[in-house]
Write a structure and sequence with these properties.
Length: about 550
């Protein structure tokens, strides 16, 4: 079932009336710069209540908009598939991760009859470039099938990693165009992404046509790597521990007006334990200090990108959007294992660029940050990053799917600093950009009939908070499922998905929340509204059937990492 709350105004005559601001080119359509963070929690940014130093993103918010209910698909590659295609992840071919499971919807790479943002915008005269993470293909070997790599999916310029995460000092699967490249010299990946993004802006600004730039940072996804000068900014800042800092963030979020004063902070997550019980407090502080440093350096990169836009005289007529692909990650690297506890992927052969052995894992006393470490910050700090919500990345409670989004467009946005409370989804970006660009979604591509787009444009929401009361949004990831219609959200956590975690008492059954009055999902109304539960559950099943969602047990279930 589709919902079209906002109609695309794609007639070329309407574009001229739609746009204001004068970029000094022959084409007055705006440039579009989309900046994506990786595993950034809802409240990590200063403008969303966090204590991390993010002045550049905060400045975008002061001169633009903050969204309180912008949703993603709950995990990196499914979210990226939605973002790029305007579809749900199963339709786009990335129903779970990038492994090919031999099942339609789960081949782990974009399907041929999907259309990427770059292909759609290129079709209406935009230049296109990507700097950073791709993570929507299952081949990273240039001798194999590269048909789903960025340069083959609409991007004219590309520098970045094709896989899911990167060693910041020496990333794997790093490419420029279709050619593999290596990190050299005093290299740090976040800086390299920023540098290439700025170079692309300078190059594309010389042409007489607008551009689309997708900046896909890997920060602050693990491994925890950061330059010491940034880590030093946070020494002692996390000594109070995750419990009290979570309460401080929650209070700050309400002060900023992001949540109503009546909002309730959910109880501590089942994965977590009190700070008072932590044996290795100094080591735990060090983990969060590195994470914060990674976010700050990414923010510095955003500032450099905005500065380059201004230098090229495009500031007023460039739409800049900053968002995260999912909630904060509770994934841990226990000792010498990578990924969640219980995984069996050993990394005994990891070395630095100069040949020193890397010690991977979250080992008490092993301070992360340097190039010979490979660690994460764990569920305790992720719970802080996800304040004020439940759960984390991979789940479809709000902690997994609701992320910060900041929009700045000086020539269009007049109520600077405003907060937008209406709900939108990451697959809405493609139709929004097409409306702004005056483009049309193609009926066919590569000789195939295209899949009808699922997202809706929210371009009107840049001017006013345009609500879609009947809008339906759906989720499924690793058996976790949800549907939202207007103020109502139905959500269920898959029972036993990860044996190492303690499930919620409601695990496995549907929970019902009024997100408008209870944005933190603390008051389950399922028992009081059984007819609404049945109605929304029926809609979810209908969507799952037409979208190619398979039963989680059928495709690997709890043993599938």
């Amino acid at each position: 079932m589709k919902n079209r709350c906002l109609k695309l105004s794609i007639a070329s005559g309407a574009v001229g009336l739609l746009l204001s601001g004068c970029q000094k080119t022959e084409d007055v359509r705006p440039n579009i710069v989309l900046i994506l963070a990786d595993d950034l929690g809802f409240s990590d940014l200063g403008c969303y209540g966090g204590e991390i130093h993010t002045p550049n993103i905060d400045n975008l918010a002061r001169n633009g908009l903050r969204y309180t209910h912008f949703c993603n698909a709950g995990r990196s590659c499914p979210s990226r598939a939605c973002l790029l295609t305007g579809l749900y992840p199963h339709q786009a071919g990335v129903g779970h991760m990038v492994a090919d499971r031999g099942i339609d919807g789960y081949h782990g790479t974009l399907v041929q009859n999907s259309v990427t943002i770059a292909e759609a915008l290129q079709g209406c005269g935009y230049q296109t470039a990507l700097a950073g993470k791709w993570h929507v293909c299952n081949n990273i070997d240039p001798k194999g099938d590269i048909s789903q790599w960025p340069m083959q999916r609409g991007f004219e310029r590309y520098y970045g990693n094709l896989n899911g995460y990167a060693d910041y000092w020496n990333p794997d699967a790093l490419f420029e165009g279709n050619s593999p490249v290596k990190a050299e010299g005093d290299y740090y990946y976040t800086e390299a992404i920023t540098e290439h993004a700025c170079n692309y802006i300078a190059e594309m600004s010389e042409a007489g046509q607008p551009f689309f730039l997708y900046v896909s940072y890997t920060a602050p996804h693990y491994p925890l790597h950061a330059r010491q000068e940034y880590i030093n900014h946070y020494k002692g800042k996390y000594a109070a521990g995750w419990d009290s800092l979570r309460i401080r963030r929650f209070e700050r979020i309400k002060e900023l007006g992001i949540l109503p004063q009546s909002a309730t902070l959910p109880e501590q997550d089942p994965q977590c334990y009190p700070w008072a019980e932590e044996e290795y407090k100094e080591w735990q502080q060090a983990r969060m200090e590195v994470y914060a440093a990674m976010v700050e350096q990414m923010d510095e990169g955003v500032g450099q990108i905005v500065k380059k836009i201004k230098e090229c005289a495009h500031a007023d007529n460039t739409l800049v959007i900053f968002l995260s692909d999912n909630g904060a990650s509770s994934e841990g690297h226990l000792y010498n294992t990578i990924e969640r506890s219980g995984a069996v992927w050993k990394k005994d052969d990891m070395f630095t660029k100069d040949g020193r052995k890397i010690t991977p894992g979250d080992i008490p006393g092993l301070v992360p940050g340097d190039d010979d470490t490979f660690g994460s910050y764990g569920p305790q700090w992720a719970h802080l990053s996800c304040t004020p919500f439940k759960r984390y990345k991979s789940w479809v409670h709000e902690g997994g799917i609701c992320a910060p989004m900041v929009v700045c467009w000086p020539s269009r946005i007049k109520d600077c600093g405003a907060i937008r409370r209406s709900a939108y989804c990451i697959n809405d970006l493609l139709p929004t950009f097409l409306e702004i660009a005056g483009g049309e979604y193609p009926d066919s591509i590569r000789g195939l009939k295209t899949i009808p787009i699922e997202g809706v444009s929210f371009a009107n929401a840049f001017m006013e908070d345009s609500a879609c009361p009947d809008r339906l949004m759906f989720w499924e990831h690793e058996g976790n499922r949800a549907v939202r219609q207007g103020r109502w959200k139905l959500v269920s956590e898959y029972p036993g998905a990860w044996k190492t975690l303690r499930p919620y008492p409601s695990c496995g059954r549907w929970e019902l929340y009024d997100i408008e009055t209870d944005p933190t999902e603390t008051c389950d109304l399922a028992a009081e509204r059984p007819e609404l539960v049945d109605s929304l559950a029926s809609l979810w099943r209908e969507w799952a059937s037409r979208s190619g969602v398979r039963d989680w047990k059928e495709i690997g279930g709890e043993n599938w990492y």
